[in-house]
What does this fold into?
Amino acid sequence: MNSGRDRIIVPPRRRLVTRAPFHLQATVRVLQRRPVNRVEVWDDDRYVRVLPVEKGHVLAAVTNRGSLDRPDLCFSFLAASPRALRRETAGRSRQVAERLGAILGLDVDPTPLRRAALSEPGLREAANALRGMRPPRFAGLFETFLNVIPFQQLSLDAGIAIIGRLVERFGPAVEYRGHLFYAPPDSSAIAGARPSALRACGLSARKADALRAIARAIASGTLDAGQIAGLPTDAALRRLVELPGIGPWSAALVLLRGFRRLDVFPPGDVGARRGLDALLHGKGTFDDRVRRFGELRGYLYFLGLGGSLLRMGLIDAAGKEPARFRR
It folds into this structure.
């Protein structure tokens, strides 16, 4: 953890490239799911995130100096852990840029996503409001499991609260202007945790055992992202359900939110179904609508979540963003 004097002295901004349109706020909101998320932070019209780098962690902020239709994305370093301050800046910047781009889906072509959303009449209003929203992904394999297992058979709010306690107890932090910003704990931190400490964060005994077993597999190298990424979707789903505590819903969510496999829709996801039903007003059968999206059915999940966040007032509809972001 660093003090206020451990500020990074680097050029103030580094550019990130993506295609238009790009809705930064909507993308971050569906990534975080709830504003109280302790890792994915939307603050003062920017995305703030602690990221691991060699020998430490940095706190980075992403802003859009342009508009939704003419995005001009950049990131800057706000602070770092003391050891990270001593590392070479150019290499660190490239590493952070790649990670931010992967999380925010900056290399995803928005055109087929928008075309698919507009093909469903009941989704057109939401699709227009969420224009430029990318399907984000979690930053790493263990981080993905950390963001899936606690939510099993729980509400979003309950799951987010549990993750917040896990992050605060086991995750590294960087201090900036008197506030602590957290990164998720890595697999080794949870692999070595006492089951009672995990349960104290709100996990059931079964979930604590499952999360610790998966953490140990990742920390030991017997499970890695490359193994999953190299498999076709059906084979990847079968591999994931072999893991302790992972059923069909969890496996699908790991692929969708951890690997951006948009050909997957989490089966039986009550929250996603409720969000889509609110947009479509119950017209047509749910399974038929999912099938019609074909290889992009996973984007329906993000549209349903984004629609819910729009109704909560957490996302500014495209075209209604603050005037300073329009040209």
